[in-house]
Amino acid sequence: MRLDRLVGKWAGAGKRRTRAFFESGRVRLNGKVAEEGGHAVGKFDRVEVDDEILQAMVPRYVMMHKPLGVVSATIDHEHSTVVDLIAESWVGELHLAGRLDRFTSGLLILTNDSRYSESLTEPAQKVGKRYRVKVNGEISQEVIATFEAGMWFAKEKVRTAPAGVSLIGPSECWLTIYEGKHHQVKRMFARFDLKVTELHREAIGDLTLPEDLQVGEWRLFKPEGSP
Ligand code: URA
Fold first, then answer.
1. pLDDT in tens, 62-92
2. Is 184 helix (H, G, I), strand (E, B) or coil?
3. Do residue 173 and residue 197 come from a single domain?
4. Reported confidence tier of residue 10, pLDDT bands at 50, 70, 90
5. Per-residue pLDDT at 89
6. Are 124 and 148 in contact (CB under 8 A)?
7. Could you tell me if residue 39 is left (phi over 0), alpha (psi between -120 and 50 degrees) or otherwise beta?
8. Does 105 lie in the same domain as 7?
9. Is the pLDDT of residue 216 over 80?
10. Is 119 found in the same domain as 95?
């Protein structure tokens, strides 16, 4: 939105009276006097008129070590949610940048910056999500080759980007995928009649779960290029 529209709406003023707010130096954008109203105002810009704050939203980025048994949602009437683990006044502003199933643990990002969350979750951005996976059988060469070639998901009508697979043991691997389809990892293994018995997300793009972030803990961080 333009700055003059925001000020005009707040003041309930027409164009002429709104202009006067600027000409008399009463409007500040991010702490600096704005002499004209043509600036584009983003969600995280601070706007003040005299001593009144019109908007001052702080961008927040939370990384959490999600425990098993907790739902990745902001509201759930049956189970506790990841949001219940953040006892802060601003928690209601946050949304999830990608979900994990109730019985998946690991790295989860919450933010109030939708540009940032989209940069992590849009498949076109090709951000890798790295999981440690255990299954109830052998991960064969056929499984690996199929994952590496990409798989057709009929429900969503998409072919997945080639996944990265690195075996840890006969029934355990690191798997990197570039989308976040519903139950994607479980559905990939289910094609080969393999059931995922343990699933843990270790990284999203360049963000790796810090070793000292204990299960259920969270911390704020600042992504590169954030406002
Ligand atoms: N794939 C799944 O099946 N579950 C998750 O929680 C994440 C990816």
1. 999 999 999 999 999 999 999 999 999 999 9
2. helix
3. yes
4. very high
5. 95
6. no
7. beta
8. no
9. yes
10. yes
Nearest CA to ligand 1 atom 2: 183
- Are 112 and 223 contained in the same domain? yes
pLDDT, tens only, 140-196: 999 999 999 999 999 999 999 999 999 999 999 999 999 999 999 999 999 999 999
**pLDDT beyond 90 at 227:** no
What average pLDDT does the structure give for the chain? 96
Is 186 a pocket residue for ligand 1 (Cβ < 6 Å)? yes
Alpha carbon of 66 to ligand 1 centroid (Å): 13
Q: Report the residue among 71, 135, 186, 195 best suited for mutation to probe ligand 1: largest number of ligand atoms under 8 A from its CB.
A: 186
State the CATH number of the domain containing residue 158.
Answer: 3.30.70.1560
User: Could you tell me the CATH number of the domain that includes residue 100?
Assistant: 3.30.70.580
**Same structural domain, 184 and 197:** yes
Catalytic residues: 101
Instruction: Check: CB of residue 55 under 8 Å from CB of residue 47.
Output: yes
Instruction: Identify the residue whose tokens are 């998409």.
Output: 158
Is 213 found in the same domain as 106?
yes
Q: What is the DSSP letter of 133?
A: E
Pocket probe for ligand 1: among 131, 135, 181, 204, the residue whose CB has the most ligand atoms within 8 Å is 131
Reduce the DSSP state of residue 131 to 3 states and report it.
strand
Q: Is the same domain home to 43 and 151?
A: no
* Same domain as 212, residue 120: yes
Residue 8 is part of which domain span? 3-55
How many domains would you assign to the chain? 3
pLDDT at res. 221? 97
**Alpha-carbon gap, residue 18 to 3, rounded angstroms:** 10
